[in-house]
Design the sequence.
């Protein structure tokens, strides 16, 4: 049931997600819900409103009703499950929560979102305090917003909305980073994830530090490490960016990139090149249409970001977008 937690968090601030409306934020701001970092807690840390919480917390209700937060997904897509994380909320967590979804174009104002016709995704369900509360979602449609309703009040640390990104082709240029998770690329296999998962390489923006990338353990044999990625769309690649930023004493010595389509064997895209620590390495390439790529690093080490710019096969993203409507 909880296999969906391995999928990207579509609501994450790392993708540009944000809280666009909350009816009450008396004790703690709803913006905390979409932070990509794990919640933290410092006991006996008080401000003028009480104990400081790394989450969204509303005041105690004295009238019937419920509290609501609306989240704009940073990566709109098909939602496979949600995680209502009540970490550190013990005597003040909501006893129940429900989740609804919405698909809209453009950038509607909060008042429009409040009055919109929402689609139920998770019925009113019991929550446990100081816990990750996982709920599977079966709706196959693409959503741009979710609404978290807590019954009647209380605190939630994080709202994770796990799913498959489905970009709107009308909002993409003719050539873009087809290895970006935000557009639907995904890691399909990897030799080693000891210090960091390779999905971090495919995240938006520059790496913040050495922990914000893929890093393998030290090899003591004659082998090498690798990661295989399914691209967001079949594409002809024209530009490769191998970024070792922050990796200074542990960058790979060399790297190669190969690719294949669903109907072809692996073929070289970028021959074996030397890598320099703490450096973005950029290369022009010409490739046939590929659906998968494999990055090999020799012998081991860390990579902050991998960017693969290419021109997708016409119609692929349009078909994918239409299937979710």
Sequence:
């Amino acid at each position: 049931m909880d296999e969906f937690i391995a999928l990207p968090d579509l609501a994450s601030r790392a993708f540009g997600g944000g809280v666009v409306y909350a009816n009450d934020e008396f004790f703690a701001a709803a913006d905390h819900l979409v932070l990509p970092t794990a919640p933290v807690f410092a006991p006996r840390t008080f401000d003028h409103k009480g104990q400081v919480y790394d989450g969204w917390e509303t005041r105690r209700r004295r009238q019937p009703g419920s509290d609501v937060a609306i989240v704009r997904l940073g990566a709109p897509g098909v939602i496979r499950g949600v995680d209502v994380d009540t970490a550190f909320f013990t005597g003040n967590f909501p006893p129940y929560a429900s989740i609804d979804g919405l698909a809209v174009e453009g950038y509607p104002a909060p008042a429009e979102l409040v009055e919109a016709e929402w689609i139920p995704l998770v019925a009113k369900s019991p929550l446990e305090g100081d816990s990750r509360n996982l709920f599977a979602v079966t709706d196959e449609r693409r959503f741009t917003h979710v609404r978290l309703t807590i019954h009647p009040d209380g605190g939630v640390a994080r709202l994770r909305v796990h799913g498959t990104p489905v970009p709107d082709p009308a909002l993409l240029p003719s050539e873009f980073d087809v290895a970006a998770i935000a557009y639907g690329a995904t890691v399909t296999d990897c030799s080693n994830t000891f210090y960091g998962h390779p999905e971090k390489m495919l995240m938006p923006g520059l790496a913040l530090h050495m922990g914000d990338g893929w890093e393998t353990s030290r090899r003591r044999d004659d082998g090498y490490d690798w990661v295989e990625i399914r691209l967001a769309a079949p594409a002809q690649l024209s530009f490769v960016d191998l970024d070792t930023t922050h990796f200074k004493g542990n960058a790979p010595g060399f790297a190669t990139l190969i690719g294949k389509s669903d109907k072809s064997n692996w073929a070289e895209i970028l021959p074996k090149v030397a890598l320099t620590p703490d450096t973005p390495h950029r290369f022009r390439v010409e490739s046939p249409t590929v659906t998968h790529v494999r990055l090999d690093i020799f012998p081991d080490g860390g990579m902050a970001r991998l960017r693969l710019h290419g021109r997708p096969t016409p119609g692929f993203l349009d078909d994918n977008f239409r299937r979710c409507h």
Remarks:
- The chain has a mean pLDDT of 96.
- The domain at 2-165 is CATH 2.60.120.260 (Jelly Rolls).
- The first helix runs from residue 110 to 115.
- The two ends are 25 Å apart (CA to CA).
